[in-house]
Amino acid sequence: MTGTTWPGGSSCLVPVQMALEDVNAYPGLLYGYNLTYEYIDSMCTRGICVYETFKALNEYPSYMMLLGDACSPCTESTAEASYYYNITQLSYGATSPILSDRARFKRLFRLSAPDQSMNPTRVSLLRAFNWKRVAIIHEALEFFSVSINELVGALKEADIEIISQEVFIQDPVARLWNMKAYKLGMYGLKIVWIFPGWYAENFWQTQQNDIGCTSEQMNAAVEGSFLTSAIFYNPIEERGIANITSSEFQKRFTSHPSYNQATSGYDIVSGQCYDHIWLGAMALNCTVSALESMGGKRVLVAYFRQDLAPDSYFEWIKGALVWKGSLIIRAYKQKRIKDRKKA
């Protein structure tokens, strides 16, 4: 929601609200239930995300699903542990390739394509223009490294020369002088930049006080650049379970009373935000249907009065709790051996 790394979560609030309205009004879907949500501002920072997420999971009320993060580092940190809470986790925007490791992330599912799936596109782009020499720079994070390692292999197979491969931890000063592409002359007819497609629409216009470039200089530096990404919206005007097309969704989204034009640069994720609420609702509905097919049903037996803490107690509903055979399950069993001779 905030922070300097990727504050794109703001563009997700309206689609989530839209999806919840549609799901709760949809006939026969999660009958008798009402889906609600609460959000956490992870600031795309591992420590904040982990602390706030598991603080919420350990507090009342209990949660059925964890939807997020869009930020890959936060998703990695939470998805490694969320399944211990018997929580299924969905992500609408995390593209880290390591999140495909099912043994490591046991109950994580995502709608976004992993970043390494764009590597064939990048190689084909180079081939299309007969570009034979490239330089690579990336931050020293695992999800970048895995994708870049696969890209390096693909470039070698395509006989494309890698003239430099740079890695920085926090500040790329020692590599590209704070990425001051204009002042280094790294723009124009001899240089083409290829960026990940999940950057903000006009990311180069974000004010950076420590760079000191004008808007005109920043525009010149990125002129002719490419951004490669998966398709965020269905290019075919077809109707899904929500009975709206892609263009109808976008029109409804941008005309919503809560729509914020200031965050429009991150609107590319809005469709996936909407879809992953539907995905979660349909998964929960399948669970309810499976339980009902086995003869199971939910019965309200008591209210736990947390509001009376520290002297909390259960208010049992008379006649609601019936044990099979009228026998309450025992906490433990004792085995006694009787000596028949002494008897």
Low-confidence stretches: none
Strand numbers in spatial order across the main sheet: 1-2-3
Instruction: State the end-to-end distance.
Output: 76 Å
Number of domains: 2
Description:
This protein is elongated. Helix 3 links the parallel strand 1 (65-67) and strand 2 (88-91). Helix 1 packs parallel to helix 9 (270-293), helix 2 (46-57) packs parallel to helix 3 (72-82) and helix 4 (119-128) crosses helix 5 (142-157). It folds into two domains: 8-113 and 262-293, Response regulator (Rossmann fold, 3-Layer(aba) Sandwich), CATH 3.40.50; 117-228, 3-Layer(aba) Sandwich (Rossmann fold), CATH 3.40.50. The strands form four sheets. A three-stranded parallel sheet has the order 1-2-3, with helices on both faces. Strands 4-5 form a two-stranded parallel ribbon. It has a two-stranded parallel sheet with strand order 6-7. It has helices at residues 13-25, 46-57, 72-82, 119-128, 142-157, 173-176, 215-222, 246-254, 270-293, and strands spanning 65-67, 88-91, 108-110, 133-139, 161-168, 194-196, 226-228, 302-304, 314-316. It contains nine helices and nine strands. The N and C termini lie far apart (76 Å). It is of the alpha/beta class and 343 residues long.
